[in-house]
Design a protein that fits this description.
alpha/beta, Rossmann fold, 5-stranded parallel β-sheet, 5 helices, 5 strands, globular, Photolyase/cryptochrome alpha/beta domain-containing protein, DNA binding, Rossmann-like_a/b/a_fold
């Protein structure tokens, strides 16, 4: 990851990006960070502590228990330290995730949003909400939820899956 600086802060064509950490709180193995850093002149890294994680769910259990919260804070502290070593900061916000991202993007005049792809319902809904607020925002979304990149495997995953389905159907 390259620490890029804005050369002319007064220029209106400066490309600024936000990388939104969600579940993958690491710097390595994040293709969206690399792609974002090549597309913009300045990157802001952020994580949102969503209020919803601390509210009781349907059966009276909070999605964020004491031990998970402690682990999350330790992981964020480590991530913040790694970013500081590379000349960056980690902006940690608390509130409704989509609202926080929209406010951040509006306030900073950002042109790009980098994020790791997640298939979860909440993650998809949050990103779709953010996208609805910005017509010109370039969203860089890359998958990081698998052990392997499907494009570098020596076979076609779709063909293998179809073969498996056909074998089961027999």
């Amino acid at each position: 990851m390259i620490n890029q600086q804005i050369e002319d802060a007064g220029s209106s064509d400066v490309q600024r990006g936000v990388f939104w950490f969600r579940h993958d709180l690491r710097l390595h193995d994040q293709p969206a960070i690399a792609e974002l850093c090549t597309a913009v002149s300045q990157v802001t890294f952020t994580y949102i502590l969503d209020d919803k994680c601390f509210d009781d769910a349907a059966f009276g259990f909070s999605p964020m228990g004491k031990h998970r919260h402690t682990f999350l804070l330790q992981t964020l502290s480590d991530l913040k330290q790694q970013l500081n070593q590379r000349g960056h900061e980690l902006l940690i916000l608390k509130g409704n995730t989509a609202e926080c991202i929209v406010q951040l993007l509006n306030a900073g005049g950002y042109t790009h949003l980098g994020v790791s792809q997640h298939c979860g319902f909440d993650e998809t809904a949050q990103l779709n909400t953010v996208k609805r607020f910005f017509n010109t925002l370039r969203v860089i979304e890359t998958p990081t939820f698998g052990l392997f990149d499907a494009e570098v495997l020596p076979f076609d995953m779709k063909t293998c899956l179809m073969f498996s389905v056909r074998s089961v159907e027999k």
